[in-house]
Design a protein that fits this description.
This protein is of the alpha/beta class. 15% of the residues lie in helices and 31% in strands. A 10-stranded mixed sheet has the order 8-11-14-19-22-25-28-31-33-34, with helices on one face.
Length: 311
């Protein structure tokens, strides 16, 4: 998430009421999760296991719960609870704004786009030309939709990320301040759910088609001309490259990459990153030819045992 203007380190520290290490005029341009940070961004870290990763990341401002040496060219925000204060910044720069109308006055709707009854279109939503939004679709704030997009009934774009920190009193949610970006010529089936990014964008590329009841997790990036069949569940921070096919009831773990033109057969559990241009099946995932050979060999076990017993 980029801020609307450049802030100083001192200004950010005042917003969350914390100490800082570094030049008080050090520039702060935005905030992001560690996998998408850029120079000028804030990243948070609250566990010693990940200190080095955060301090050595592209982020130039680290929100951390321990005073450490400041890396060259960077600055620190010292907090007793970085998770809490990262949430404070999200709420400050991207606060929830209640709507009192089903079509926000700040929404931009392109020429020849049709929006069927009972849809909700949130604040600052942009929808391109020649789109068709069927009934009971909810499009949350700041979502961007390109041209020639079809969204079928009951789908929801922009719900919060499923991202929690366990506390003694229960689970504390990491606030979502990102967006959903739908590029041109995308088709989204009925009852699909596409979560917005925590601080970045959840993106679906040009020409990709989603069947009914598909879930796309936060900050996931789906490439161009992909096919995703019904009841597929894609976790957060997944990269799906161009022209990938996911058949029905595929599930993925978070933070993986599926290479271009890969085919994932139905009910496969994608437990790790996989190369493009191949077909995969099973849980744990393997190339489909190898997995099917294994299954065929398993079927031979009873006859083999019978032969051994006869010896």
């Amino acid at each position: 998430m980029k801020f609307p203007q450049e802030y100083t380190l001192k200004q950010i520290a005042e917003i969350i009421n914390c100490e800082y290490l570094g030049n008080e005029n050090f520039p702060v341009l935005g905030m992001n999760e560690i996998h998408v940070v850029e120079s000028g961004d804030i990243v948070f870290v609250d566990h010693p296991k990940y200190y080095d990763k955060a301090l050595q990341s592209a982020a130039t401002i680290v929100l951390i719960n321990k005073k450490v040496d400041v890396p060259e060219g960077k600055a620190l925000l010292i907090s007793d609870d970085p998770f809490r204060d990262f949430n404070k910044l999200t709420q400050y720069f991207r606060p929830f704004r209640a709507s009192n109308t089903s079509l926000s006055l700040s929404a931009e709707i392109g020429e020849n786009t049709i929006i069927q009854p009972n849809c909700f279109i949130g604040n600052n939503v942009k929808i391109g030309k020649n789109c068709l939004i069927h009934s009971n679709v909810s499009i949350y704030d700041n979502t961007i939709i390109g041209d020639n997009v079809i969204i079928h009934a009951g789908s929801i774009l922009g719900a919060d990320a499923f991202y929690y920190k366990k506390r003694p009193e229960g689970f504390d949610q990491l606030r979502s301040g990102g967006r959903v970006i739908i590029e041109d010529n995308v088709g989204i089936g009925a009852l699909c759910t596409i979560d917005k990014g925590v601080t970045g964008d959840t993106t679906i590329g040009n020409g990709t088609k989603l069947d009914n009841q598909v879930h796309v997790g936060h900050d996931t990036v789906i490439g161009k001309k992909c096919l995703i069949a019904s009841q597929t569940g894609i976790a957060g921070c997944v990269i799906i490259e161009d022209e990938v096919t996911l058949w029905g009831q595929v599930g993925t773990t978070s933070g993986i990459t599926i290479g271009a033109k890969a085919v994932i057969m139905g009910q496969t559990g994608v437990t790790k990153s996989v190369e493009g241009g191949k077909s995969y099946f099973g849980t744990p995932i393997e190339e489909s030819r190898e997995k099917l050979k294994q299954l065929a060999n398993i079927k031979k076990i009873p006859s083999l045992i019978e032969k051994v017993n006869k010896i």
